[in-house]
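Sequence, please.
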């Protein structure tokens, strides 16, 4: 009987099991459909984010290119804004600094100071803005304390970027604090070894300390990274002259004159090197060119 009951109750059990399985299949199907819907949504969001990121990356690349045009290294990626409007504002504010230099005091330098001041007020968390503001202030002849203050803010917000340390070093050097300047320049180089400006500035410190050998060492490293640097050959030629290495000085000073024949300092130093080498005619030509270019020592060294 038990067997019959068991056998007789088997049909409903099988039907019930089939219904349960069907429901389970439907549930799984619904779950998979839900997962697919979520996946499509995620893919769509990722695609939109990717498109936005591409636009932002293009603007970030433009900021890095702008800095490279100034001779400055790129900041770490996480220091760059990731909002297009911020990046656009930064590029617009800093672009006038092109072709400027310390104390150039051009109208565009003043305009850059004003624009970057407004940018940093609006975006106080953007270290790149503070670094460029410090650079603009340096160009516009602002007091070194203000330049250093903004450079230090940039350094705090973006502590792996080399530009702020170089700017702080410049303010130390101008204030006669060569040892402090050297620390700042070496910090900058520790962050970006190929950075030309602090390497050149270390050579200037070495010459100020009458250590022409150290200057040659720094400048040789600099030229290795930047063989066409505007003033590195000129300064190394001067250092070689101090070391009485006339042949080496001539190579550098001829390169400096070839790069910029209207550089009065280069012509004067080349004349001195040529005179030391025994080339009186060449020395006279270079020294008199220095005089014609308005070098203050030209009148004294150019033979009548």
């Amino acid at each position: 009987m038990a067997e019959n009951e068991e056998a007789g109750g088997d049909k409903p059990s099988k039907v019930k099991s089939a219904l349960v399985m069907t429901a389970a299949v439907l549930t799984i199907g619904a779950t998979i459909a839900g997962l697919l819907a979520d996946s499509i949504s995620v893919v769509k969001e990722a695609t939109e984010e990717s498109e936005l990121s591409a636009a932002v990356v293009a603007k970030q690349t433009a900021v890095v290119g702008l800095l490279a045009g100034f001779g400055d290294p790129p900041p770490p990626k996480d220091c760059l804004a990731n909002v297009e409007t911020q990046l656009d504002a930064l590029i617009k504010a800093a672009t006038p600094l092109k072709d400027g230099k310390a104390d150039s005091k051009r109208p565009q330098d003043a305009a850059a100071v004003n624009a970057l001041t407004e940018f940093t007020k609006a975006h106080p968390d953007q270290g790149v803005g503070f670094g460029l503001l410090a650079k603009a202030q340096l160009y516009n002849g602002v007091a070194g304390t203000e330049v250093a203050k903004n450079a230090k803010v940039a350094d705090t917000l973006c502590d792996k970027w080399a530009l702020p340390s170089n700017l702080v070093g410049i303010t130390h050097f101008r204030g006669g604090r060569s040892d402090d300047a050297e620390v700042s320049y070496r910090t900058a180089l520790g962050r970006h070894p190929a950075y030309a400006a602090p390497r050149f500035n270390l050579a200037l410190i070495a010459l100020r300390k009458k250590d022409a050998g150290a200057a040659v060492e720094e400048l040789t490293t600099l030229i290795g990274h930047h063989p066409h640097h505007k003033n590195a050959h000129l300064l190394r030629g001067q250092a070689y002259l101090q070391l009485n290495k006339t042949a080496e000085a001539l190579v550098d000073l001829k390169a400096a004159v070839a790069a910029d024949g209207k550089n009065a300092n280069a012509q004067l130093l080349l004349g001195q090197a040529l005179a030391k080498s025994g080339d009186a005619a060449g020395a006279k030509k270079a020294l008199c060119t220095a005089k014609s270019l308005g070098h203050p020592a030209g009148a004294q060294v150019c033979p009548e």
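The CA atoms of residues 291 and 299 lie 6 Å apart.
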